[in-house]
Design brief:
Shape: globular
Number of strands: 29
Distance between the termini: 47 Å
Number of helices: 16
Helix content: 25-40%
Largest sheet: 10 strands, mixed
CATH class of the largest domain: Alpha Beta
CATH superfamily of the largest domain: ANL, N-terminal domain
Strand order of the largest sheet: 2-3-1-12-11-13-14-15-16-17
Number of domains: 2
Strand content: 25-35%
CATH architecture of the largest domain: 3-Layer(aba) Sandwich
């Protein structure tokens, strides 16, 4: 069995029931009425947004049409199809259409620059790129190069001349597709991660990993066919999609929300009768802030059906959950830990019954095993001792695609070395202590210091620079740039901020510090020393103590 079988089973068992809903508060045009096979509900005074929905039957048919369109162009088992789309109702049918052909789905981060898009396409040997209207400019910049050996497909209105039109390709295709003999051990997807260098690594997963994530999510959060899952984070990330897989397993409805304001989240949860909502820390804090200030009133929404709020992607302050439960005392709460190498969230989870342990990432998830090892690889069993967290289970990646050296460093037999330092308490609950790598997690997204450092070094006044993470009560962590100015040069914080305007907003340092940058005898920046100087040594602990 694969997740393709789950979709087909739902289409047969619940053909007329709604599978996916897209809610887009920002949509002001009616152009989507021309998009085929989707029911569009126009805005009303009660529902001031655009809303599209599809049934399980139409979901499966659209996946079949895209599979047929790909097959007609020679795409089949072992080929790779990349997806560069913002969250939308087309995203998942495209994903499943790829899998139905036996090809590998390759989701791309919507923040990638043109150079990063090109790099990932080449690294993963991508044969087809499907992209949306938000990416026309970025793809056009590299179109001449990347189209030499791959097909470009555009999913949106106003198809550019350098791409094929997704809708024209699929409209005449059959709505059924011959079932392929796929097994759980067949390759299914490539997701991208990155280390401290900032260059993404291609993570290869088999169908068994995707299927296991369905079972993990349902086991942890008890989805039933009556649940409604509100999906806000980006679908390119393993987190959002793997949480939705619990809905796939039981054939329940999911709502894809394109918006993160507190009012939008609460209004959508109310209007769509959502029972499960996955939030990031900043969104939860924004909701609480709006409630504290009286900008929102819970009495204006119908939220009695909302039973579970869970958070992942970054450490969760204990005070946040205490405040949340004060407003929502009937809510279950869970936090989830995982890596793209372990098919996202759920390898470790707190458990809805363990809210007293908020601050821990939890215990081994359904079907998973954990251990903590010392630098020699020996398992640590004594509570309080720090070592590297390791995972074992059906969701572990097969390898880093085309990178045996990195694979050998990360996979030791059946065990995945996470690169995260952790400890346990006397009850066996796991607490993260620090990240072994230098990646900064800000608002659930990874920042790579080397990328920011390389950019800042282009400034002629900068002699040396180091970027580290500092604790932030809302985002979890922020990037701080320690800048050493060249002799006889002057540089102000305002000038640095102006210089950084050419960086994507999320990569810009939030704090500028003018100081010497220490390096060791081999020339490496002594970031542990900087973290100690600037109070970043205990980032996770400080976040958990925020009041």
């Amino acid at each position: 069995m694969t997740i393709v079988d789950l979709l087909e089973q739902n289409a047969q068992k619940y053909p007329g029931e709604i599978a996916l809903v897209e809610v887009n508060p920002a949509e002001k045009e009616t152009r989507r009425t021309t998009w085929r096979d989707f029911e569009l509900v126009e805005p009303t005074p009660h529902t001031p947004h655009y809303r599209r929905e599809i049934t399980w039957k139409v979901f499966d048919e659209k996946a079949n049409r895209f599979a047929n369109a790909l097959a007609a162009r020679g795409i089949g088992k072992g080929d790779k199809v990349a997806i560069l789309l913002m969250n939308c109702i087309e995203w998942l049918p495209i994903y499943f259409g790829i899998l139905k052909t036996g090809a590998l789905a390759v989701p791309l981060n919507f923040r990638y620059t043109p150079d990063e898009i090109r790099y990932c396409l080449d690294l993963a040997d991508v044969d087809v790129l499907v992209f949306g209207p938000e990416f026309i400019g970025r793809v056009e910049e590299i179109a001449d190069e990347i189209s030499r050996n791959r097909l470009l497909i555009y999913a949106g209105q106003g198809c550019p001349t350098f791409a094929d039109d997704y809708y024209e390709m699929t409209v005449e295709c059959a709505s059924d597709f011959p079932k392929l003999p796929l097994t759980e051990e067949d390759d299914a997807a490539i997701y991208f991660s990155s280390g401290t260098t900032g260059f993404p690594k291609a993570i290869l997963h088999a169908h068994r990993a995707l299927l296991h994530s369905c079972r993990v999510e349902q086991a942890h959060h008890g989805q039933t066919h009556e649940d409604v899952f509100l999906c806000i984070p980006p679908l390119y990330h393993t987190g959002a999609k793997m949480h939705w897989f619990g809905s796939l397993l039981v054939g329940s409805r999911a709502v894809i929300l394109k918006g993160t304001s507190p009012e939008t989240i609460l209004r959508t949860a109310s209007d769509e009768h959502c029972t499960i909502v996955w939030l990031l820390v900043p969104w939860a804090q924004d909701i609480l802030g709006a409630l504290d200030r009286g900008e929102l009133k819970l009495s204006d929404y119908k939220l009695d059906q909302w039973r579970l709020m869970h958070i992942g992607a970054q450490p969760v302050p204990q005070s946040l959950i205490r405040r949340w439960l004060a407003y929502f005392p009937h809510h279950q709460y869970d936090t989830n830990y995982g890596l793209s190498e372990s098919i996202g969230p759920g390898a470790v989870h707190l458990g809805v019954e363990n809210v007293r342990k908020v601050g821990a990432i939890g215990i081994a998830g359904y079907g998973w095993q954990t251990k903590i090892i010392d630098p020699d690889g020996k398992e640590i069993t004594k509570p309080g001792e720090v070592g590297e967290l390791c995972l074992r289970g059906p969701g572990v990646m097969k390898c880093y695609y085309k990178d045996p050296e990195a694979t050998a460093k990360t996979l030791h037999g059946d065990w995945l070395l996470t690169g995260d330092m952790a400890t346990t308490d006397e009850d066996g609950f796991i607490f993260l202590v620090d990240r072994k790598k230098d990646v900064i997690i800000t608002g659930g997204e990874n920042l790579y210091p080397v990328q920011i450092e390389d950019f800042l070094r282009r400034n002629n006044a900068i002699k040396d620079v180091a970027v580290i993470g500092l604790p932030d009560p809302r985002l979890g962590g922020i990037a701080a740039a320690i800048i050493e100015v060249k002799p006889d040069f002057t540089l102000t914080e305002e000038q640095v901020n102006d210089f950084c305007l050419d960086l994507p907003r999320y990569q810009r340092p939030r704090k500028i510090i003018f100081a010497d940058v220490p390096r060791n005898p081999t020339g490496k920046i002594e970031k542990p020393k900087l973290r100690k100087i600037y109070g970043a040594d205990h980032l996770v602990a400080m976040q958990n103590e925020i009041k």
